[in-house]
Amino acid sequence: MDSESADLTKEYIKMMTDMIVLCATLALSLFFWIVSLTLSAVSGNLQPVSPWRWLLSILVPLTMAVRALRRRSLDRSGALAALLVGFVLTMANFSFVSTMLTFFLTSTKLTRWGAEKKKKIEADYKEGGQRNWIQVFCNGGVPTELALLYMIEVGPGEIPVDFGKQYSASWMCLSLLGALACCAGDTWASEVGPVLSQSQPRLITTWQEVPVGTNGGVTPVGLVASFLGGAVVGGAYFLTQLLLVSDLHLADPQWPIVVYGGVAGLLGSVLDSFLGAHMQYSGFDSSIGKVVSYESATTRRICGKPILDNNAVNLFSSVLIALFLPGMAWGAWPR
To answer: Residue span of the signal peptide, if any (predicted)?
Structure first.
């Protein structure tokens, strides 16, 4: 009886906590909306942000951060960082946050998939792939900055990708999508390749066979997975556009967004592997029988130098894709 009472008490406390959080979220979103209206009335040239957008900008990141914290996909610092990233992306454009959520959810699922096999080959394997604030900002920092620039350019809201009508904003949209697709492609390749690949990885710089887990090692399965990961992220962006943008028929075709995401995922994975082969140390530690990123008396060097870690390589790859890929897409975009 005591255990039943304790369980009921816990359920009651959980329900009350959820209600308090929801009420606080509603109050906070209403407060931000009033501030937005006030600033718009004073300046005369600002458009007030909808209270629904304020509400979703707080509620969606909060829900996802709490869920990720409970499932140990993020630690506390990662959850706080995700709140900031999620708030900015949701406020700027719902296509942005749907893309980020697709990347995060699929990556989390794939990280947990094939855990037993990954434990045997990864020296720094973490149960559930728990991410901290550094990893969150290395993957979401560039998109967050682009979302802020997007809001300065056109304000919060959804627009079609159309270089003829919204050149700079369209560039920012594709840059943001490219950065997230790059991260998704690299994650899908690194999570799917070791589990499904039947062939030994080859170092991207020399094409010599290397042990599984070597930075810069690629497989055909991993490359295909990187394209699919980017395409899935691009598909989430495209689907959100179809649902929320009313004048898509007046803009350039939007379906290339899916292909663009796939290309960004593939190129991002290749670029990540190239940087990893040169700037990340990989060595085989005979004492544990695994590839490691540190030098020791029992370690035989495979490739790379200890210049960057995995987070920095991810960041550099996403920055380069965000900077250069939209220019290539602009010339090839159908009109």
So the answer is: none
